[in-house]
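To the team - P-hydroxybenzoic acid complex, inputs and output below.
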Amino acid sequence: MQNKILRVDYPPNMHSLSVSRTQVGIVGAGPAGLTLALLLERCGIGSVVLERRDRPYVEGRVRAGLLEQNTVDLMRELDVAGRLEEHGLAHDGVYLRWQGQTLHIPMTELTGRSITVYGQQQVVGDLIDACGERGVEVRFEVEDVAVHGLDGESPFITFAGEEGEERLDCELIAGCDGFHGVCRPSIPAGVLNEYEYTYPFGWLGILAAAAPTTDELIYAWHERGFSLYSMRSPEISRLYLQVPADEDVAEWPDERIWEELQARLGVEDWRVGEGEIFDKGVTPMRSFVCEPMQFGRLFLAGDAAHIVPPTGAKGLNLAVNDVRLLAAAMAAHFADGDDSLLDRYSESALRRVWRAQDFSNFMTQLLHRLDDGEPFGARLQLSRLEQLRRSEAARRNLAENYVGLPAEDDF
Ligand code: RFL
Ligand code: PHB
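Output:
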């Protein structure tokens, strides 16, 4: 559908207000919002994506790196996987490392499904390019976005664009604006149940111009704290260190980072490959879910509705799964007025969200230094790691959760 734009000019002393109309107003141009816009476009449904930041900022934000097979399959289905096929690194397993031992978990052998390392920055860049090529409107640098009329038949979004105030009338609104967005807080008090847990630690993440010296990701338990060895390409490594939640990145000059990584990840005759660090940041870790993920004509998706600690590598994958369900439900609404899928959207999405919450919490509690002053927790962790080494059933359980449930199990 063509988006209609109508400009209403008021007398000179009043602000002019541009009013336009689309079928679905989408707030946020992260993986959730952009993927939803492309899924809707494929069904002939018009949408406008409203994003607070500018395009270079959105494309430059360093975040996730690990895509489940479902996510890769959806990117292929949407015909946006060209660069992913070329540059994505297919992985068949991961390593767990503790006390000098390394255990390979052969994901593909255990589940028949695989994982792909491909940076969220690239995913977002590919999605924005596809929106441009397919005429999907993405408006960057819009300010003061607010959603209105959510419990009526005619919701609308107001915002300040380059030319002044604007109003976007819609039939449905998708809140894809991340954890700190405006959509979730616009739902009236008392509607949502919110579940939250904040961890007392965070991750210091770096990108380095260094060839990875490992063929698979390494998740390492260490008395000094957790660390993770990941990558972005044969020349670029992505590494993380557990640090206190409120850590100042200035406390971590490059030499200290490499020293700590070698101490936590290194084993005899093997070292982490070092190189120039060109990105550094600290991320807090929290678990959060709001229920339901919808109110009237507003549907939340991705980090706007739930956050997982990154240890399970689930956040982006959950965001993409939400909009896969949401797009199908919206398509049924527009095709024949059938709202049964929209009514069930939250319930369908939350099944996978809670599974991912549990798995992300399990991986976090298994591998991080708990800092509660008691050695008891560490002994339990070592016992669980030992069980993974001894039991194929335990490895299979981890592998099934890590690669993600098949998409068809959701509706
Ligand atoms: P995003 O990506 O936060 O996008 C939301 C967008 O909304 C915009 N926005 C607004 N726009 C207009 N008006 C407003 N008022 C707005 N407020 C916000 C924002 O600017 C932004 O562009 O949410 P989305 O689309 O739900 O995607 C979620 C993922 O980004 C997130 O879950 C992942 O990055 C989490 N994550 C990982 N997920 C994985 O699946 N695999 C991983 O390996 C993985 N590793 C990670 C991660 C997240 C990390 N950090 C930094 C949080 C590793 C890290 C370190
Ligand atoms: C990443 O490559 O950024 C990454 C990989 C696995 C995780 C989290 C982040 O669990």
